[in-house]
């Protein structure tokens, strides 16, 4: 007969099945249902046990010995036909027994027969039971045997009941535990996410409120544009009279100060751009002196100090405001950069691996409408740092700000790996007067072999000058640019004279792929007037995919080597002073103009450098880079004319150089002079004549070389 309280099939598989239940909620639910069914069956078993206890008190109990023999015979014959109880002749005692049995449910009777099989002393399987009740009564030997069997059966049944009940309770408890753990984990994960989102939102709202407050303050202050601040311009000692006053709009000064103050608390950065791809000489002219080095020394600073003291801001007609300064400047170039995808650089450079590319003539499409003299001026984009340094009393903080200015000069190279500047011609000049930044700048190409560019910048707060020779080497996939020279800054308010070297620049993926720029090397900044502190910066060399690309690390130290300030950041993002996360941002670049990728990657400051306004045409010398025709044609988008003019100008320079050599004439720079430092090294400094000649008699009244 079929057993009505069979164990669940999943229980037979042991621990592996239990493990599966713990992983799948459906299996656990199925287990609970099966065990609940077992529990109901056990209730029926309990009722059977009560009935059997009643039966054992009767005198006409069935003969279980005959039952065993009959079961064994049926098992051997493999007869498993299920039949109902049938009797043909029932005695009086049998009727009494039958009445006793009818008081028990049929299912309980069947369970009773089945439960007898769980006793090892009973038959293993009971397939059929057809013996008449009268025969069963006669086959019982003694009542004592029946009682013993009943007692054994009750003991085993109770054990089974206890074990199944315990298993059911254990599985139910474990299931509840697992559900509780999963529920707690889910609630904890959601709670952490909510807390993180709330914290981020709070920080964003706080930063937004701070920025909004600053912008409102800047906007309210910018309304004062009608008011001007008087800037004293020192006249030359030969001129008697009062210092010249120049009106500079207050709003522009506020903008400069605000840009600097905002960089102290805002950690959002904007990238800038530029790259110096070639030497400062014409493309097809070779360098004769590869070993030349131009440096700076201490005793030469006196020459430039006299410039600040005697010739600072001398301008023609004694008036800077009349045509020399402009409040509005252009915000976009006339034409976008030309397409260079059809130029095969390998055919041009394959025979020049390991050589200086200054002798190689490049297609004009690879140039940008600026030259190296203008690039030197571009390093002064963030002169507000020097203005702030000139007002900082602490020498270590002052050194940190000067270090930020040294790093800022590289920020404009970030987007400029796709083009190279024009190489200046010998005697070419460039002038830049920025009333918004309060400085006057001029530069000149003072030597052709070796190629040397010199510049000088004057301001009330600082004096800046440098002479640099650009050497470059092509290595197949990349090109290295090695600047040789020293940058100098004087702060008259403290009598400081800072000088530092430049790092190596490398342009990667010259022939194929996306070009990108890297600066690496060590920079040492010294104050030659006070050795109390020194600054060392490291431009970390990495690769395009590394996390430390464009990284800068450094420190401001005492003379004994003790670190006072730590500096870190990226040269295209900003520079911090201090230790994270409490470090202070002391500089960050400005935002880029719209569609800068289409316009050579120029920053706003770079866009303004080659602008030629009508009022400047009669004031600039004819050698100024703004008048160079090939550069102007390229800026206007006329590539064909730019290429033709470039070829003509280069040929004209070769002829001019040949004539000088044949007549044994040596070129003399107009606005710079060569001096020797204490180490007998050549240096180029201003001869203090540029602004004087510009004022009187004016460059157009002088004899000027014809460069183009």
TrEMBL record:
**Positions in coiled-coil regions:** 634-662
Record PROSITE patterns: OSBP
Supply one GO CC term from the record. Answer: perinuclear endoplasmic reticulum
Give a GO biological-process term. intermembrane lipid transfer
Keywords on record:
Coiled coil, Lipid transport, Lipid-binding, Transport
Pfam entry (one): Oxysterol_BP
Residue ranges annotated as transmembrane are none
One of the record's GO molecular function terms: cholesterol binding
Q: Which family does it belong to?
A: Belongs to the OSBP family.
What is the name of this protein? Oxysterol-binding protein
Organism, scientific name: Cyprinus carpio carpio
């Amino acid at each position: 007969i079929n057993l009505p309280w069979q164990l669940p099939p999943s229980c037979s598989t042991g621990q592996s099945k239990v493990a599966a239940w713990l992983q799948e909620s459906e299996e656990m639910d199925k287990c609970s249902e099966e065990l609940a069914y077992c529990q109901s069956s056990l209730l029926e078993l309990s009722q059977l046990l009560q009935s059997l206890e009643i039966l054992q008190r009767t005198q006409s109990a069935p003969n279980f010995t005959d039952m065993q023999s009959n079961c064994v015979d049926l098992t051997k014959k493999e007869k498993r036909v299920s039949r109902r109880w049938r009797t043909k002749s029932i005695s009086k005692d049998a009727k009494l027994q039958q009445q006793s049995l009818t008081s028990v449910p049929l299912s309980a009777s069947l369970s009773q027969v089945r439960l007898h099989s769980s006793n090892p002393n009973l038959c293993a399987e009971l397939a059929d039971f057809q013996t008449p009740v009268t025969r069963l009564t006669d086959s019982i030997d003694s009542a004592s045997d029946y009682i013993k069997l009943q007692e054994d059966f009750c003991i085993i049944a109770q054990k089974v009941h206890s074990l199944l009940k315990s298993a059911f309770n254990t599985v139910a408890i474990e299931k509840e535990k697992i559900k509780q753990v999963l529920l707690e984990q889910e609630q904890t994960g959601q709670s952490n996410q909510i807390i993180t989102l709330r914290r981020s939102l709070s920080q964003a709202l706080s930063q937004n409120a701070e920025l909004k407050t600053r912008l409102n303050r800047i906007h309210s202050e910018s309304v004062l544009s009608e008011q001007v601040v008087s800037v004293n311009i020192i006249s030359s000692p030969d001129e008697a009279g009062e210092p010249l006053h120049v009106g500079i709009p207050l709003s522009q000064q506020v903008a400069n100060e605000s840009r600097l103050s905002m960089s102290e608390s805002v950690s959002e950065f904007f990238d800038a751009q530029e790259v110096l791809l070639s030497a400062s000489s014409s493309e097809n002219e070779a360098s004769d002196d590869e070993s030349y080095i131009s440096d700076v020394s201490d005793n030469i600073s006196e020459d430039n100090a006299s410039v600040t003291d005697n010739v600072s801001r001398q301008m023609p007609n004694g008036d800077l405001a009349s045509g020399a300064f402009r409040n509005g400047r252009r915000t976009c170039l006339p034409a976008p950069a030309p397409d260079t995808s059809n130029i095969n650089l390998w055919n041009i450079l394959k025979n020049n691996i390991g050589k200086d590319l200054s002798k190689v003539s490049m297609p004009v499409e690879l140039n940008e409408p600026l030259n190296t003299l203008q690039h030197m001026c571009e390093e002064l984009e963030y002169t507000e740092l020097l203005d702030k340094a000139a007002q900082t009393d602490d020498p270590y903080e002052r050194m940190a700000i000067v270090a930020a200015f040294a790093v800022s000069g590289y920020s404009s190279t970030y987007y400029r790996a796709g083009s190279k500047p024009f190489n200046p011609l010998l005697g070419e000049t460039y002038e830049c007067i920025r009333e918004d930044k309060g400085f006057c700048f001029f530069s000149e190409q003072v030597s052709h072999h070796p190629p040397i560019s010199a510049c000088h910048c004057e301001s009330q707060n600082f004096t800046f000058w440098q002479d640099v020779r650009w050497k470059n080497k092509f290595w197949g996939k990349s090109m290295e640019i090695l600047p040789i020279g020293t940058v100098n800054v004087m702060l008259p308010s403290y009598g400081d004279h800072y000088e530092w070297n430049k790092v190596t620049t490398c342009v990667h993926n010259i022939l194929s792929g996306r070009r990108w720029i890297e600066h690496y090397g060590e920079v040492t900044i010294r104050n030659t007037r006070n050795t109390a502190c020194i600054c060392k910066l490291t431009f970390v060399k990495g690769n395009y995919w590394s996390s430390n690309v464009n990284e800068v690390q450094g420190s401001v130290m005492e003379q004994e080597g003790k670190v006072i300030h730590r500096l870190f950041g990226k040269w295209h993002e900003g520079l911090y002073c201090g230790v994270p996360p409490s470090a202070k941002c002391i500089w960050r670049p400005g935002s880029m103009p719209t569609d800068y990728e289409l316009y050579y990657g120029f920053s706003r400051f770079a866009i303004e450098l080659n602008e030629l306004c009508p009022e400047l045409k009669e004031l600039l010398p004819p050698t100024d880079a703004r008048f160079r025709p090939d550069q102007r044609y390229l800026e206007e988008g006329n590539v064909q004319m730019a290429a033709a003019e470039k070829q003509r100008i280069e040929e004209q320079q070769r002829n001019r150089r040949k004539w000088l050599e044949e007549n044994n004439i040596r070129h003399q720079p107009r606005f710079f002079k060569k001096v020797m430092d204490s180490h007998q090294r050549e240096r180029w400094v201003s001869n203090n004549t540029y602004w004087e000649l510009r004022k009187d008699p004016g460059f157009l009244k002088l004899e000027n070389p014809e460069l183009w």
